[in-house]
Amino acid sequence: MSNRRQPKQRRYVALSVASLVLLAGGGAIAAEAMSSRGNDDTQQSRNVDDQTDPDGATGTGAVPGTAKPSAPGAAKPGAGASAPAAGTPSARTTGGPSATTAATGTAGAQSGARQPTAQSNTTVRLPAARVFTGRAFDTCTAPNPTTMAAWRKSSPYGAAAVYIGGKNRGCAQPQLTRSWVRTVHAAGWQLIPLYVGAQPPCQTSRNPERISAANAASLGAANGADAVAKASALGMAPGSAIYLDMEAYDIADASCVQSVLTYVQAWNRAAHAKGYLAGFYGFSQSSAAAIATAAGRHAADLPDALWYARYDGNADTTTGFPFASGLWTGHRRGHQYAVNKKETFGGATVTVDHNAWDAPVAVVG
Predict the structure, then answer these.
(1) Collapsing DSSP states into helix, strand and coil, what is residue 294?
(2) Can you tell me whether residue 199 is helix, strand or coil?
């Protein structure tokens, strides 16, 4: 996958705070709303053994018009909110996922499609989530504070994705400490924590930690708990969304797909148990497509937010959305639309991936 970065001069305006409750058939993420102004620059590099997905040519970086804030829970049928133009990120209180008790339920069905829900055998009450809408970048190694400060002042990015852990994480993180998180967040950056979990058994790679039919549930639970521990150690509090990085694999292999789904469901339950939202990063024609298929079957314990790689140059989360339009609406989508772009802001050069963002991020504090 790729990595992400952040913006320019911003304003944050608190709008409201609501707690997120995971209710069967519910589906409302209550997020701490805010407005922000920022610049966005992206750095790119893959974190697990390079897995490619035929999602189209590298994007051009075209930016659509600014999206207007919507009323809480008022996602329009068939559309997730578009990420605004560069330099105009915002965050707000919105509808979103819900977690729940027992059987499969719907979460804010739109256009005839049911929202995926986070379900378990107990009701889980989560703290308020923080939603960021705007441009984000991801990069393999977190840049130093000087680079982040320079980009904050002059880039179009408002959020940056950081690889917080996982045995398959491929990049060293000498900068990524609790102090770094506190410093860059105080400078105005929103952060998107990414965890490189175990990878599919049918994937062609040299990743050291692999899923199997035998270990899928136990390994998913252990990795989910580890992701929470890593986020917490960095000062990312409950209510944060942590995104599980699942690289491309052969989704024609039914047994492989089932093992991955079992692993993801267990990972999600472990995150929810500690008060964290479970996000998912994957490719639109493989790993993300398998999760969307599971959502179409109303499977339990699915991700609260979907970050999909589709290199189509559309810098928003609605145009070209590759799955049923009613899935992951209500500010729960991220779109990686271009990768490996070398950019310079404030005299600092970083290679990043470009993302349109309209989804929960880390709660730092």
Answers:
(1) helix
(2) strand
Query: CA-to-CA distance for 317 and 303, rounded, in angstroms?
Result: 17
Helix axes 287-296 and 254-273, enclosed angle (nearest 10): 80
Which amino acid appears at position 79 of this protein? A
What is the DSSP pairing of strand 241-245 with strand 277-283? parallel
How many helices and strands, by DSSP H and E, does the chain display? 5, 17
Separation between Cα atoms, residue 190 and residue 160, nearest integer Å? 6
Q: Is the pLDDT of residue 83 over 90?
A: no
**With b meaning 16 or more CB within 10 Å and e meaning fewer, what string describes 21-37?**
bbbbbbbbbbbbbbbbb
Pick from 121, 124, 119, 126: nearest CA to 298: 119
Task: Give me the CATH code for the 20-364 domain, please.
Answer: 3.20.20.80
Eight-class DSSP state of 326: T
* pLDDT tens-digit map of 193-212: 999 999 999 998 899 999 99
Residue partners of 344: CB distance under 8 A and separation at least 6: none
Beta pairing class for 277-283 and 20-22: unpaired
For tokens 């493989």, the residue is 286
Contact 348, 320 (CB under 8 A): no
Look up residue 49 and give its DSSP letter: S
Helix (H) or strand (E) holding 83: none
Instruction: Give bridge partners of residue 90 from the DSSP assignment.
Output: 35, 133
- Which of 117, 103, 104, 93 minimizes the C-alpha distance to 268? 117
Residue with tokens 């989530």: 129
CA distance 9 to 151: 10
Spatial contact of 282 and 323, defined as CB atoms under 8 Å apart: no
Q: What residues form DSSP beta bridges with 113?
A: 110
Most confident of 12-21, 116-125, 163-172: 163-172
**Rounded distance, CA 67 to CA 210, Å?**
40
